[in-house]
Amino acid sequence: RWFFRTAASVPVHVNFQDEDEEHDEAPVSRGLKVCRWFQKSLRVELGANLYGGQSLQQRLLHFEHLTSENVSGTLDRFRSNSLGFGNRMTAADVVEMYMGTDMEEHAYGIVFVIKLGIALATYGYNSVDVEYLLRAVCDGMSLPLNRLDAGLGHFTVSFGSGPSLMLRTGGGLQFDKILACVRLAKQASGGFVQAPAAIMVLDEIFDRRKPYGQLIHIFAFQCLCTLTALSIRLGTYEDAKNTALIVPFTIAVLKFCKHGYQVTELVDFMVPFATGMGASVVWRYVDRTKSCHVATWFLSVLIDALPGGQLVYAAYEFQFSSIIYSTSRLVRALLQCMLLAIGVTAGWQFFGHNLAESDVGRGGAIASLPPSKECDGPLTMEYKQSHWLLYYGVYNVPLLFTILVGANVRLRDSLAPLAISYVSLFAYGCLTFLDCISLPAVVNNIIVISLAANLGCAHEYFTGTPPIVSVLPVVFFLAPGAPTLVAILRQIHHAEGDKMQGADLWGDLVMQGLSYAIGLHSAQALWRGKNMRRARAVATREHQQAEDVALAARERRGLPRPTTTPNF
Fold it and tell me: Which of helix, strand or coil describes residue 167?
């Protein structure tokens, strides 16, 4: 069940609803239940990406053997499984649609493509890459694809003379499952995969637990927000301390939303609401510092809620002429920023009423608004100039690691994305702070994202890992949407009579997203065809090697050659 549907770029908080209650068949003591809960919540998976500790080819051959002989009703079991993610239609329902038609032999291949498309869209792959990858799979499996449309929250597909199916997709971000699904799709694009076996491997990916437990994710979220005050906002250590005091307010609200089914849909409002409340409490009772520091606090806590990924996906889809979906994402990103600003302002009223009276010189509504400007004086700029090397060179390592943990990247897969993100962001620091290099911010964005994307595509060439795994942490760090959130807060100040200068909401939002998309698109244009050809060549070689190993093993045991797999 996917309770959280958010516009956030890397919604770490989605993982707070990881651990569902289990009903034990036999009654156990409360102490044992607590021990089991802690055991689940503190787990760290170190195993292979697919169940059984086998390679992808070995797993596929294993299921091909089971389906060819229908061991223990294997075919009946996977036919009864639903398409997943809130779709009640089962594989048997889809197969039945094509029975007795010229598409009957492709029925299981169609089921596989449908389930794969829903999974990729739900796990956080952008619509352009979903469509490109699925078209390659259809070519490899000789499926007569008519229409493929991976939109926001829905997936529409039709084959040959069959009906058009519109299915729903969920929300979230699980890089470990994206990685497994993409590798399976590339294997299928080579044309050596039997559809029933591929479906069963996909079902295993669906059922696999997240690599980290709930408490690990909560701790990662706490560290992420705290380190953001240093590495991303370039604040002081006092800012980091006060940010750490605000984060528990947000965590408590997220846990409440997880268990309170009637308020689950309000999570995008409740997160900034709790942040505004927590910031006002800290400023009133803990640290009465300058108001400009308070903006750094709540921007650090809201880093997980900013729509950075939505902006990049929107501009990226625009580059590929997906106008409707790109526009929808842009509008959603702007509304998300507005919702964050309204939520912070509403939560601020509980303990922040008239809190800024000494700064504005009078009470009332204008003195009850959260600060909308970060510190930018000469002393602040001097502090940033003297500390950026420490922040980018040292603190970025734990920050990027917590981002990868929040995105469910397994430890065994995290080293290369961490290195790529670290190098790219260090280059961004040099472009921004070194006096000998002076380029416009938009050009810096293009250079940094292009560097991360090219390194990510090179990593994909050798390992098959999608480049978005390495690029999205960089986008997360650059925090697109934060200036728009601040601009909206300034608009609220202006409406209450403050003489603060406003800003262009759309201009900054779209410009940031487009600059990132240009860097990403330039790398994809150079590497996409090359990487797909490489993936198909590797799939061919691995398939032949796996078949030779399996055949030699059967011969050593004196077993006959396997029967020919039915044409599914």
Answer: strand
Tokens 């007569």 belong to 144
Q: Which long-range contacts (CB under 8 A, 24 or more apart) does 283-292 make?
A: 283/352, 283/355, 284/351, 284/352, 284/355, 285/351, 286/242, 286/245, 287/238, 287/242, 289/238, 290/375, 291/356, 291/359, 291/371, 291/373, 292/371, 292/373, 292/374, 292/375, 292/376, 292/380
Mean pLDDT over 90-119 rounds to: 90
Question: Which residues touch 26 (CB under 8 Å, ≥6 apart)?
Answer: none
Closest C-alpha among 463, 103, 472 to residue 113: 103
Q: At how many degrees (to 10) do helices 468-478 and 308-319 cross? A: 120
Confidence (pLDDT) at 482:
86
SS3 content of the chain, % helix, strand, coil (to 5): 70, 5, 25
Cross-strand partners of 149: 156
Q: What is the pLDDT of residue 254?
A: 84
Query: Taking a C-beta distance cutoff of 8 angstroms, is the pair 83, 115 a contact?
Result: yes
Mean pLDDT calculated for residue range 164-182: 86
- The pLDDT tens digits for 134-156 are 999 999 999 998 888 887 788 89
pLDDT over 70, % of the chain? 88
- Which candidate, 424, 524, 513, places its Cα nearest to that of 473? 424
Give dist(CA 113, CA 142) in Å, integer: 12
For Cα atoms 447, 448, 453, give the angle at the middle one, nearest 5 degrees. Answer: 100
Q: What single letter denotes the amino acid at residue 247?
A: V
Give tens-digit pLDDT for 213-262. Answer: 889 999 999 999 999 999 999 999 999 999 999 999 999 988 887 665 55
Average pLDDT, the chain: 84
Give the alpha-carbon dihedral of 303, 255, 269, 499, to 10 degrees. Answer: -50
Say yes or no to pLDDT of 183 above 60: yes
Could you write out the three-class secondary structure of 93-142?
HHHHHHCCCCCHHHHHHHHHHHHHHHHHHHHCCCHHHHHHHHHHHHHHCC
Q: Is 250:281 a contact under the CB 8 Å cutoff?
A: no
d(CA 362, CA 356): 9
